[in-house]
């Protein structure tokens, strides 16, 4: 996959998120296709590309309309891109269990960070509701990421940088 | 200098992360700045055009269903209208008798919901009216059933509305019967909580909750929701009311922006 294909896929992912997220909303939570794309880009091109993809797609996400906390998506997505990028090429070196647990953990970390700041004070007022929102939003995106494994398993991504 | 540049290139992933974090934090802290508002407004204008094909498909799909609902609603409204006309004449007579000031009706600007943002959590909608139609920031937005939220960013042809389901949205509300005021905020799904209701105030199930008018944004007496549960524990200083919003945020298609109170 060359850089032009990656840019094209970034555009397609953005359109997918833009057009489909509304129809896939469950209990006010949507799947995050942009995050899935950032995970794949980070695995393939490393942390630098992960940060660039995370920041730019996060910025586009917030520019498309956000009620409050403008700038939160680029922050969380660039951190996630950086962390996932650090796992580039590690699949063959690490224990597969640790490898997969690590990137899934990063996705959960992304959502705990995002939900904590998006829903300010929810953790203090209702930790149960906070955990439910966090788990559901992370699980929804992870389920789609799981489906993507049929098309392109993360373990088979060849690092290009 | 070359060594320093070489170090930066070698550590470009860390450098880019630090820059991304700094820019993001700067964006979060300058959320209210004029430049950011203009950029968001212009981007939203463009994205709304991009979203128009989906809007068209969605409009066709909902047209039939909406037509059926409107037919039923029209009949109900006719019945209600005749009853209200009677009440209106009676009310006018009583108002004149009490020398009440005649309240000005709200000026409403209709708009269509164009998209519902992309973030992982639903918290805003975009509508197809902006400064060209006289919309200003911090104007109340209503649906047919009740309030929806307020405008947070206004472009020339479109606006972003912070809906009540944004956890950071707050509305000063009152109970219809007692007039006790509280602060409403979203809790989960379609439920909201009203805080700061004094313990001595009696609250009835399904009692309506209205805007209190103690705000520069929301005029008084706009419909918000109804009481579904009252939480009153001995250790609490106030009651907490759980409420269900009248507006169905998942299917909202059209809204009305209340012309800014401050501009009246």
Helix and strand arrangement:
The complex is a heterodimer of chains A (161) and B (264).
Chain A: H1 3-20, H2 33-45, H3 47-63, H4 72-85, H5 96-118, H6 122-125, H7 127-151
Chain B: H1 2-10, H2 12-29, H3 34-98, E1 108-115, E2 124-127, E3 140-142, E4 147-154, E5 159-163, E6 171-175, E7 181-188, E8 191-198, E9 208-211, E10 223-231, E11 238-245, E12 254-258
Antiparallel strand pairs in B: 1-2, 1-12, 2-5, 3-4, 3-12, 4-5, 6-7, 6-9, 7-8, 8-11, 9-10, 10-11
CATH class descriptor of the largest domain in chain B: Mainly Beta
Query: Would you identify the CATH architecture of the largest domain in chain B?
Result: Beta Barrel
**So what's the overall shape of chain B?**
globular
Give the number of DSSP strands of chain B: 12
Order of strands in the sheet with most strands of chain B = 1-2-5-4-3-12
Strand coverage percent of chain A:
under 5%
Largest sheet of chain B: 6 strands, antiparallel, barrel
Total count of strands of chain A: 0
Shape of chain A: globular
**CATH architecture name of chain A:** Orthogonal Bundle
Q: Which descriptors apply to this entry?
A:
heterodimer; A: 161 residues; Arp2/3 complex 21 kDa subunit ARPC3; 0% strand; B: 264 residues; alpha+beta; Thrombin, subunit H; 3 domains; six-stranded antiparallel β-barrel; 3 helices
Summarize this entry quickly.
The complex is a heterodimer of chains A (161) and B (264). Helices cover 71% and strands 0% of the residues of chain A.
What would your notes on this structure say?
The complex is a heterodimer of chains A (161) and B (264). Chain A is mostly helical and 161 residues long. Chain A has a single domain (3-150), classed as Arp2/3 complex 21 kDa subunit ARPC3. Chain A has 7 helices and no strands. Chain A is globular and about 45 Å long. The two termini of chain A are 12 Å apart. The mean pLDDT of chain A is 85. With 264 residues, chain B is of the alpha+beta class. Chain B has 3 domains: 2-30; 35-164 and 250-263, Thrombin, subunit H (Beta Barrel), CATH 2.40.10.340; 171-245, Beta Barrel (Thrombin, subunit H). Chain B has helices spanning 2-10, 12-29, 34-98; strands at 108-115, 124-127, 140-142, 147-154, 159-163, 171-175, 181-188, 191-198, 208-211, 223-231, 238-245, 254-258. In chain B, strand 7 (181-188) and strand 8 form a beta hairpin. The radius of gyration of chain B is 23 Å and the shape is globular. The mean pLDDT of chain B is 82.
